[in-house]
Amino acid sequence: MYKYNDFDEAFVRARTAQFSGQVQRRIDGALTEDEFRPFRLMNGVYLQLHAYMLRVAIPYGTINPHQMRQLAHIADTYDKGYGHFTTRQNIQFNWPKLTDIPLILSDLADVGMHAIQTSGNTVRNVTADHFAGAAADEIEDPRPVAELLRQWSTDHPEFQFLPRKFKIAITGASTDRAVTRAHDIGLRMVRNDAGEPGFEVLVGGGLGRTPLIGKIVRDFLPKADLLPYVEAVLSVYNMLGRRDNKYKARIKITIHETGKIELTRLIEERFAELRPQFGGEDQALLSEIESAFAPPLYRQADTGGYDAFYKADPLFRAWSDTNLAAHKNPDYRIVTISLKAHGATPGDATSAQMRLLADLAENYGHSELRISHEQNVILPHVHLSDLPALHAALRGTGLDTANVGLISDIIACPGMDYCALATARSIPVAQQIATRFDELKLEHDIGPLKIKISGCINACGHHHVGHIGILGLDRAGVENYQITLGGDGTETAVIGERAGPGFAYDEIVPAIERLVLAYLDLRNNPEEAFLQTYRRLGLGPFKAALYEPESARDAA
Fold it and tell me: Does domain 319-394 have CATH number 3.20.20.140?
């Protein structure tokens, strides 16, 4: 894992001191809220519905136990004892006092963390596959490249005032766990015919009010060309991107209006200008960064205990079947710890849970944790022999739920409970759906199913790429929930189809129940997942399940 050097440390401390002065001027009245706004956004501070919110960067989702304990300390000292992990692999604190935020930033700096560029029209936190460095299907660990991009983009003078925010996601595996096709730039590691690693480059993906899947502008880009090529994309976007309408300012609109062929030509032209300016310093830095991401020293131990425990303990077996993933070392597993206990707020973790996660990472996980865009926590390197003890430590803590990838493993934005932009509640809908299907005891029978919920059109809950997506809207002062079906955020990404008219708040959970029960009747066999059934049959039978009961009631 990368550790801040003296330059990083000095930069973050200077920014913290600068912002401390700006906060004091705001408190003294020397700055109005409008004048203060650009300063706070540069430092990850939002004005939410009830209070300021601080969004802390967790670059490419990688965090160590010391940092996790500091987040727990911040939650206890300056907030209400919890934090919220986001779909950008960050953490948000929803209740800090403005006067305390400089103190929080200083505490973050103590452990090599900050909140820079977690907001504003800049390059946001670079996200990555949360299984990076451990996944069995990985070509290369993408995190060194993500760190290179982080260092390059932080306070880049040309890209601090882009037309709109800019998001980059990267994966080094054949399976896309980073939703790269729904980002402004998506980078998917591939190999050319000679077996050399490089990147497929996608541009113009994004969700929100105009959801689009990114378009491939390079089938294969050599690793050595990545930084100047990404700079070329940003440079072209900075020139062409619209600033007259924020709803049309993202690069997805730029590529739509300019055309893929012309935009690609402009990118390649700018790349040809920039490439000679990169004399190898970036590759030397990348080589240095790569040394910080060397794999841990895997230990050798007997795995028989795991096999025996798996056979003997049904709770452990259920948890193993859902929450474990294959590791590149056959004696290890990747552990996903669910932050989706039935009825809990998706992505929330208490300070006690954070400290436990830190302890478990030290004791069993080579002192490494990851935050996933699906709002869970990952221990990427756990030996098979340690899994029974790990599971035992999770029991009774709210972190032992065996539901990863299942219907209660819901992505949800904060919604109208917190967010000033939201038009409907998200959290209660997620809680009610999870609770209902736990009551029905159907979760494991249903199998893999991704529900994603957004409380407004900005789509922070990624509803467009949910197998079942739920979008909360305001209809004449009343919450109304639209359902989309068939979305997919993986390497086969597609935007979901709108099923039809929306549902009232008290109707949405029964609607989801009808939908899922219909799937159980429609699937060919228990191995056919929801998305497979939907792709086989299309919208028709699912739409009928949603709306025919309503029609029957109206007729009666």
Answer: no
* Residues 373-402: tens digit of each pLDDT: 999 999 999 999 999 999 999 999 999 999
Which backbone phi and psi does 189 adopt, to 5 degrees?
-70, 135
Contact 482, 470 (CB under 8 A): yes
Span 411-555 CATH architecture: 2-Layer Sandwich (3.30)
| pLDDT above 60 for 220 | yes
Reading the block at residue 288, the tokens are: 């240095």
pLDDT of 13 reads: 97
Which tokens go with 104?
Answer: 């929080």
Backbone angles phi, psi at 475, to 5 degrees: -115, 100
Reading phi first (left if > 0) and then psi (alpha if -120 to 50, else beta), residue 500 is in left
Give 89-133 pLDDT, tens digit per residue. 999 999 999 999 999 999 999 999 999 999 999 999 999 999 999
pLDDT digits (tens, 9 = 90+) for 483-521: 999 999 999 999 999 999 999 999 999 999 999 999 999
- CA 356 to CA 351: how far, in whole Å? 9
> What is the CATH number assigned to the segment(s) 134-291?
3.30.413.10
The SS3 of residue 44 is coil
Residue 217: is its pLDDT beyond 60?
yes
Cα–Cα distance between 473 and 480 in angstroms, integer? Answer: 5
| Cβ–Cβ under 8 Å, residues 325 and 342 | no
- In CATH, which of 3.90.480.20, 3.40.50.80, 3.20.20.80, 3.40.50.300 is domain 6-109? 3.90.480.20
Q: What is the DSSP string of 375-444?
A: S-EEEEEEEGGGHHHHHHHHTTTT-----TTSTT--EE--GGGT-SS-SS--HHHHHHHHHHHHHHT-HH
139 in Cβ contact with 63 (< 8 Å): no
What does pLDDT average to over the chain? 96
Spans of all domains in the chain: 6-109, 134-291, 319-394, 411-555
